[in-house]
Amino acid sequence: MNSIFTKIINRELPANIVYEDDNVIAFLDINPVNPGHTLVVPKNEKSNMLESLEEDVINILKVVRTLAPAILKTVGADGFNLITNVGEGSGQTVFHTHFHIIPRFNNDGHKQWTVMEVTSDELNKIEKDIKSNI
Ligand code: AMP
């Protein structure tokens, strides 16, 4: 079954589309974190960015670099977060690759990540383990 985002691409569902080319579409998130919150989506439906073709991920990032300055200018933002969720544990709810461009404002009140305490031994072990898993 087609994802919600494929339905937007096919014009079966409405959306505020701000950019479109042969491979990528971008539209406003219906539940924005801040004004101008935009989703950048490859037309080729895959469940997340690890499943998408490398070429599609590159195309998305090219669009982000064009679109983000226009969004920031439009809403008067001071910066933005670029986020892609992969898997349920990350909070992903739509299983069609997408990158969020979330405009940020100085003192907008959104919390940054909380951090955990870690020892240098733990960091060293994780470094070693990641390298062995590549
Ligand atoms: P994620 O948690 O990364 O999977 O986020 C999915 C995002 O899609 C959420 O921020 C939703 O608000 C957004 N979303 C879901 N349905 C629509 C829709 N029909 N149009 C625009 N954005 C949507």
Task: Describe this structure in a few short sentences.
31% of the residues lie in helices and 19% in strands.
- Uncertain runs with pLDDT below 50, 5 residues or more? none
Shape call: globular
- CATH level 4 superfamily: HIT-like
For this structure, the CATH topology is HIT family, subunit A
Can you list the ligands bound to this structure? adenosine monophosphate
Quaternary organisation: single chain
CATH-defined architecture: 2-Layer Sandwich
* Number of β-strand runs: 5
Main pleated sheet: 5 strands, antiparallel
Distance between the termini: 33 Å
User: Would you tell me the overall average pLDDT?
Assistant: 97
- Tell me the helix content: 25-40%
Q: What does it look like?
A:
The chain is an alpha+beta fold and 134 residues long. The protein has one domain (4-132): HIT-like (HIT family, subunit A, 2-Layer Sandwich). Helix content is 31%, strand content 19%. The chain has helices at 4-9, 54-75, 120-133, and strands at residues 17-20, 24-28, 38-42, 79-83, 99-104. The relative contact order is 0.17. The chain binds adenosine monophosphate. Residues 4, 13, 15, 27, 29-31, 39, 85, 91-94 line the site of adenosine monophosphate.
